[in-house]
Amino acid sequence: MSSIARTYMSDSSGKTEKPQTPYQELVQVDDRGDYAILTINRPEKRNAMSFDSLARFREALQEVRGKKAVVLTGTGPSFCAGMDLSEAAKSAEFFANRTSQETHPWTAIQAQIRAHGAVFIAAVNGYALGGGSTLIHSCDLAIAAESAKIGAPEMGFGGFPLQAGPAAAKRMAPKHAAELILTARRVDAHEAYRMAIVNKVVPDDQLLAEAVALAEQLAGFDAVALDWGKKTLQRMEDLTWDEAMDYCQITNLVTRSRSDATQQGLSNFVQGKRTIGQGA
User: Which pTM value belongs to this model?
Assistant: First the structure.
């Protein structure tokens, strides 16, 4: 990954202002073949999303099309602090002028992650607040560093969390979601694990290595199976038991028609070759 490049601006008195991260560095893309690492890189703002960051994020998601797995993380002490509150006027302007068919760019990014063919792994390296917690819910898997803090502070500002609320309600048990939303309390990594917000908690210095190891494992699987597996898991959230069983039949037909991985896997098993999940 390239080193973080920044430009510094000085006023007429010679004072140096806080570093401003160049546009292309706002979300970094580290291409590693069948998987990639996306890094939100605005540490001076706790990786809060400006409108420039949102635009770059959407570009980065396009750049990792075709990957089997994507690790999503942040630089500095934060994973993502949600939307940049200093740009509230821009958000208000957007909502004032949008049509009923337009969504906020941050909402569009969540949809883009869910619709992406890659399996997304959130590597939560610190604060994940508001829209930052939404990112975790939008990802398919999540690993948290022990120092991670996750919350939806919007109730403390006198409002309901626009995106963190629905995301929590869809992903969490009802009372866990209510606790996160209504109390505006931040939970630590281990409590986030108990609430099933994350899959695993690791020491801070092992976070990226754990996420990369998981991405490498996923990268060894068939791309079609991963893509349709992700889609099927999402669809089953709203289906009855019988409907879910029927939908999986469609998934198997599609994957078998688009890839020979299933037949090859069965053939290998019969020959005594074992892969992940098939025992010794």
Answer: 0.85
